[in-house]
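This week, work through this protein record:
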Amino acid sequence: MDEVPLLELRDLNKYYDDGYHAVRGVSYRIGPGMLVGLIGPNGCGKSTMMKCINRMHDPSSGEILIDGESVLGKTPSEVAKLVATVPAELRNSFGLTVYETVMMGRYPFLKNVWWETENDEEVVLDALRKFGVDHLQDRQLNMLSSGEQQRVLIAKAYVQEPRLMLVDEPTSHLDMKYKLDVMEYLNAMVKKDMTILVAEHDISLMARYCDLCIIMKKGRIMAIGKPKEIITPELIEEVYEVSASVGFDEEGELFVLPKRYRKGHDTL
């Protein structure tokens, strides 16, 4: 008998009201304990697909299953116990402190609207220590650096105790040090019985850390597999319309070096 995947998409489609077909017949299965990179150019459907998984969007057709159960009939609170989301950037912190922000991740478990239990407090304090932001717990979130904010948002998702974490472009505003810092935290988290799906533009970074990569273009999956097996110059050119060198450094880590934009270049 086949093992039930942690996440399974079956022929997922999403049309917007203007008729735009953002996600086109996407199907795949992902097991537990994996860090999965979701890669593709802007507008390829990465964020739309993730918003269908966490039910921020209703899919037009298809099925989304977590641990073999459909999420389409579940309430937002039920989905939040299975799926946690880390946004690409902080849009409005409403003056919340770091502690208050992370505590918001416990809302699916709160039995009382007005206060948290001792267990909720212990979970939050443990996460603050785990992600190295306990000394910032009384600071307002919007007063932190981008790297610190990102760790707080990951801690908030972590305390939801999800089976699946969706992380949207976690390193887009970070320097090299914090890029590696965030990816090390995510990599450590998947050693538990949880899978993390990361949408990211830095292909070399995804190749270094991810167990599996999903490559998308125009709403479709172009390739899925281990990054060192599927990321090639031919795939980069097909997906991004650029020529690129794909090689390995002295430690065997894959890197991608874009060289030139191909489409229409000879008309300039």
About this structure: The CA atoms of residues 174 and 233 lie 26 Å apart.
